[in-house]
Amino acid sequence: MSLPPVEIKPLSQLTLGQDWRIALAHDRPEHLVIWITRGQGRLLLNGTRRGVGTHNALTIPPRTLFSLELGRQGIAMVALIPDGTDVRLPVGPRQLRVREVDAIGELTGIFEAAHREMTQGRALAQDAIDAQMALMSVWLRRQIALPEHLPVAMNAAARLSARFCERVARDHADGLSMAEHAAELGVTATHLTRACKAATGRTAADLLTERILYASRMALIETTVPIQDIARHLGFGSAAYFTRFMQQHTGQTPTALRKAAR
């Protein structure tokens, strides 16, 4: 089966003007490369929260929990690269703070050239985009090899938080509580809560709730699956419990959210 094409788009097109699409903790099925050209904010990645700003390059592998709060004035370009691609991308999540002028110009040029191919509809456009992604791969691997981009050692709280985030990305629809996830990790719920709070500024329960909320909103807006089936798929005991969950976190019922989106 052939892979879907690479997509290049501004961050504003990815979010469609709805901040929750990027600000809620979630994961995606494809590789993301995000190039921030203006603004600053906060990033959740690899189980830790850190500041993010202009000329930061983010590489986010498939099924990696993350969130990005960049603000209304922030500008970024995003490459969505299907899993299974031949393009050599970083294995783990990375945040690169780029300061060298030539390197900034190179990555900006790659994104601009790929985006032109996306929007102009010329012959062999996808081949040209694939070639630009190969250049992006080289750029990323060169940057990662620089001494200033060596990864920082994680403390015990961050390591535990990262392990929990991996579970949330993989198992959020299983109906497990935060305490049950903690037990699977071999720690108490209290210890897991403290570790996640120290590493991310969010509790473990917050992270799990956000991932479920993101999945709920996407299913309601992007599909026609009946609400009771969405509730069951996401581990809710009943459609009524799912409705209370959505009202608590969005102020709207699932039916109202779906109607508003359409």
Structure description:
- Pfam families: HTH_18.
- Residues 162-260 form the HTH araC/xylS-type domain.
- One of its GO terms (molecular function) is sequence-specific DNA binding.
- Keywords: DNA-binding, Transcription, Transcription regulation.
- This is AraC family transcriptional regulator.
- This protein has 262 residues and is of the alpha+beta class.
- It folds into two domains: 7-149, Sandwich (Jelly Rolls); 156-261, Orthogonal Bundle (Arc Repressor Mutant, subunit A), CATH 1.10.10.60.
- The chain has eleven helices and eight strands.
- The strands form two sheets. A five-stranded antiparallel beta sheet has the order 1-7-2-5-8. A three-stranded antiparallel beta sheet has the order 4-3-6.
- α3 (101-120) runs antiparallel to α4, α5 (156-171) crosses α7 (189-200) and α5 (156-171) packs parallel to α8 (204-222).
- The radius of gyration is 19 Å and the shape is globular.
